[in-house]
Recover the amino acids of this structure.
């Protein structure tokens, strides 16, 4: 499979990387590999896609920026939403579908929401077959917990470390199947071939991918007809975020450059509860399970302020008194849900308003109190990693005192526009799955729907990608030497730009400040225009990036490559946010405070025909009549 | 609030390196990784360090801080004296790649050798039933974030490179224990534990338990029970006799 060049150089026994230092001066000594399917990203979506493609008979490679098992999925805490009905037998896919669509303010791709609700129970059970150890009900079945926006207790979980359980299970399955994993490799280019042959011309079609190994700085070329993007989100474009350094919009940008389109990019989820103190942990996630398990939000006056923020849209299903809210934990039939468990966009906006009105906590958040509401043993058992996190990083004992929390950039609903059933983008052979895909969550994602999304669509994308690769092997497009050379030169540019003096860390910091200040929770036309002008200036400065040192494990060089992606994706967010003149889900316009039914029928589609992003309106797919009836009651 | 922190960071690669001195402004509430990031952003753009979540959940930023194996994201500066120089070096048990980044592929190789989970058939009603008490033993081990600090500190491999061939290290001895205690798993993992993964080489000094950032009782809850299971099987005269009389598939498991 590997046709790496030979010679007397030293090679790493496991990775085959050259270990000698003069590799840095040889730009064209590429490793080349041939696969049926290349999956970019090793989080839940990427691993599930790789397993599915492998099971379908394809030769699969996973290429990931970090080590295997470190992807951002490990940060997911609460659980996997699936209407298994283990705790409430009344639950079913129709109820889950309805909750998901309403949580997304009906902007979701209805077909994706339907498939997701129908298939997630089976995907959870599959994890159990592969060794996952979920928490149990008294009957010995998988236990399910309450979460915001879900009518019934629906989240399969393991304490508050469900993401870790999921990634470890999928990682171990991947290893058991013998799937090739290229760790600490970053894809910088997806190659496409859109030639017209004779009378028939076809659109762009995937031919391969270009990557570099961090360990050596050495380049790799993958020849493959199918690429699955599973690269996660964009959170690193913001100052306060729950996302890790990897979340730089790589897949979004790779898709745009390959000729695919993005939708819903204006919708960015600010999770209502991130840590606010000390500064070094600002933004780190505090799981929604704290509220699902009884935690209440209070302002500096000790008021449970969420009762003042129940929107018309959710009035009929939300408790309007403390008594009813308290009753709900024990009896969900006779009582409505506490307002703390409204969808995330509602809670984040409410917290934001309380802080702005001067009723915040000492460090600029609000109080999340479970200490006075549940006993210490319950808290430590249900929320062990929250207990650990606050104890170790903030010197706060959450069984004895309230936490201080505030909104943190958490998730982008927008992403690559894909076909609901196959997850293929506009580019043939290019698939997107998980956070990098758009449509499934509409304008706002419900907690717990992310892990299930990864599993359901990961599997579908893997199958589709394998089918695409295997059905027509002979006519697969090829990668030309020129393309490869250009990709290599492009990647090395930051080492050799003339007159370069810009520090990539500084530009990243400036971009984060712009996005936080001007494209945050509440947006306004003039600020969004300003943000676009600022992003243009940053793009100009980014042409003169200077990188010190050499190619081996060089974080400055790596950031220089990531920055290009962050800038494009930030431009997409700001541009779409300026265009959409309404407030809906994860997009709130101070100058257009309410939802607008006309906008509610439209997607904004972004493409990259040249250096700048272009935008057009596109009608939303229309839900069939039989599904519409699910929304008639209430 | 803020102060000037003195740090010594090991910089170099497989061919050699040295401790370099840095002085960096730090703030209240910060951790060692914050200080290193600030050095990276302002003084040494190419300083290599591996990290991801910065919340003690992914186990990427393992290193040795003043000689102690720790996660850099969980090492709070407030636990050091402000005048103290903090020295950070890469994990010693693994070959260095560059600066604070080591080649941890040993661990991924050992992971591949552990036979996969192999469940018994589903219940008659098509479900999988396990009781909470029964899954809790395995759940403790599945808290492992694979930071490999236990592997780093284990003197069986830290001081004896040769042992890497025949010893899986605490992380993977615990993985065997986890599977062995899984209510659904059917494989007998003891022969491999004894022969390829060197359970007998562990002399229960509990260094691994001490450095575990997740507080897993690796020695007491995983390694010692597995040692007992091995001994039961190997030295129980009835079992020994059974193994001589019956075919393997007719033998009674202990």
């Amino acid at each position: 499979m590997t046709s790496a060049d030979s010679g007397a150089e030293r090679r790493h026994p496991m990775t085959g990387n050259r270990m000698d230092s003069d590799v840095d001066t040889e730009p064209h000594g590429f490793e080349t590999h041939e696969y049926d399917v290349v999956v970019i990203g090793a989080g839940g979506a990427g691993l599930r896609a790789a397993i599915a493609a492998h099971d379908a008979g394809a030769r699969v490679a996973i290429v990931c920026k970090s080590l295997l098992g470190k992807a951002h999925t490990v940060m997911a805490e609460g659980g996997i939403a699936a209407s298994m009905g283990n705790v409430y037998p009344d639950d079913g896919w129709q109820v889950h579908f309805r909750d998901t669509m309403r949580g997304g303010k009906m902007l979701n791709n209805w077909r994706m929401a339907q498939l997701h609700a129908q298939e997630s129970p089976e995907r959870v059970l599959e994890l159990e077959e592969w060794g996952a150890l979920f928490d149990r009900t008294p009957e010995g079945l998988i236990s399910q917990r309450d979460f915001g926006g879900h009518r019934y207790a629906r989240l399969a979980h393991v304490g508050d470390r469900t993401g870790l359980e999921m990634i470890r299970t999928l990682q171990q399955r991947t290893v058991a199947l013998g799937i090739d994993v290229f760790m600490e490799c970053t894809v910088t280019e997806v190659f496409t071939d859109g030639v017209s042959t004779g009378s028939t011309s076809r659109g762009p079609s995937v031919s391969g991918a270009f990557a570099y190994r961090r360990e050596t700085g050495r380049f790799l070329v993958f020849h493959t007809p199918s690429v699955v993007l599973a690269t996660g989100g964009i959170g690193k474009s913001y100052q306060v975020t729950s996302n890790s350094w990897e979340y730089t919009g790589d897949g979004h940008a790779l898709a745009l450059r390959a000729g695919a389109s993005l939708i819903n990019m204006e919708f960015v989820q600010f999770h209502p509860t991130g840590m606010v103190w000390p500064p070094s942990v600002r933004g780190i996630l505090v799981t929604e399970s704290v509220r699902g398990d009884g935690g209440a939000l209070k302002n500096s006056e000790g008021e449970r302020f969420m009762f003042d923020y129940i929107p018309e849209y959710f009035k009929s299903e939300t408790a309007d008194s403390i008594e009813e809210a308290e009753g709900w934990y024990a009896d969900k039939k006779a009582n409505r849900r506490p307002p703390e468990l409204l969808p995330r966009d509602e809670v984040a906006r409410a917290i934001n308003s309380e802080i702005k009105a001067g009723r915040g906590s000492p460090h600029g958040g609000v109080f999340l109190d479970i200490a006075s509401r549940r006993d210490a043993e319950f808290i430590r058992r249900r929320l062990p990693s929250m207990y650990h996190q606050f104890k170790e990083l903030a010197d706060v004992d959450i069984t004895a005192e309230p936490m201080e929390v505030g909104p943190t950039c958490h998730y982008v609903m927008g992403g690559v526009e894909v076909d609901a059933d196959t997850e293929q983008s506009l580019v043939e052979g290019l698939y997107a799955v998980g956070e990098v895909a758009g449509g499934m969550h509409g304008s706002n994602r419900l907690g717990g729907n992310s892990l299930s999304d990864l599993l359901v669509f990961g599997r579908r994308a893997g199958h589709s990608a394998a089918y695409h690769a295997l059905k027509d092997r002979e006519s697969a497009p090829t990668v030309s030497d020129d393309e490869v050379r250009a990709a290599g030169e492009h990647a090395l540019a930051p080492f050799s730009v003339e007159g370069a003096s810009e520090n990539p860390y500084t530009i990243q910091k400036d971009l984060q400040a712009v996005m936080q200040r001007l494209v945050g929770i509440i947006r306004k036309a003039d600020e969004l225009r300003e943000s676009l002008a600022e992003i243009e200036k940053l793009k100009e400065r980014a042409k003169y990036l200077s990188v010190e040192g050499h190619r081996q494990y060089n974080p400055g060089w790596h950031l220089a490559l990531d920055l290009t992606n962050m800038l494009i994706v930030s431009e997409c967010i700001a541009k779409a946010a300026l265009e959409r003149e309404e407030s809906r889900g994860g997009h709130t316009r101070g100058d257009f405070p309410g939802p607008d039914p006309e906008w509610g029928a439209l997607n904004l589609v972004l493409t990259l025909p040249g250096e700048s992003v272009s935008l057009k309106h596109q009608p939303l797919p229309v839900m069939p009549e039989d599904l519409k009836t699910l929304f008639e009651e209430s | 609030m803020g102060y000037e922190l003195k740090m010594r960071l090991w910089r170099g690669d497989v061919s050699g390196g040295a401790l370099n001195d840095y002085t960096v402004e730090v703030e209240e509430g910060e951790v060692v990784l914050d200080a290193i990031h600030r050095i990276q952003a302002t003084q040494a753009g190419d300083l290599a360090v591996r990290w991801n979540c910065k919340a003690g959940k992914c186990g990427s930023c393992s290193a040795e801080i003043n000689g102690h194996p720790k996660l850099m994201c969980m090492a709070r500066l407030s636990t050091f004296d402000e005048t103290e120089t903090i020295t950070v070096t890469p994990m010693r048990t693994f070959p260095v790649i560059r600066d604070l980044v080591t080649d941890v592929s040993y661990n991924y190789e050992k992971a591949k050798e552990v036979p996969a989970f192999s469940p018994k058939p589903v219940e008659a009603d098509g479900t999988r039933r396990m009781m909470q008490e029964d899954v809790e033993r395995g759940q403790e081990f599945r808290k492992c974030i694979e930071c490999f600090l236990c592997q780093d500190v284990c003197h069986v491999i830290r001081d004896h490179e040769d042992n890497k061939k025949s010893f899986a290290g605490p992380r993977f001895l615990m993985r065997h224990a986890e599977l062995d205690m899984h209510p659904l798993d059917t494989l007998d993992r003891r022969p491999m534990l004894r022969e390829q993964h060197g359970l007998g080489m562990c002399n229960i000094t509990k260094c691994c338990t001490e450095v575990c950032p997740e507080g897993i009782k690796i020695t007491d809850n995983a390694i010692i029970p597995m040692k007992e299971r091995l001994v039961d099987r190997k030295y129980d005269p009835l079992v020994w006799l059974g193994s001589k009389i019956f075919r393997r598939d007719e033998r009674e498991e202990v």
Observations:
- Chain A has a mean pLDDT of 92.
- The longest strand of chain A covers residues 403-412.
- Chain A is about 30% helix and 15% strand.
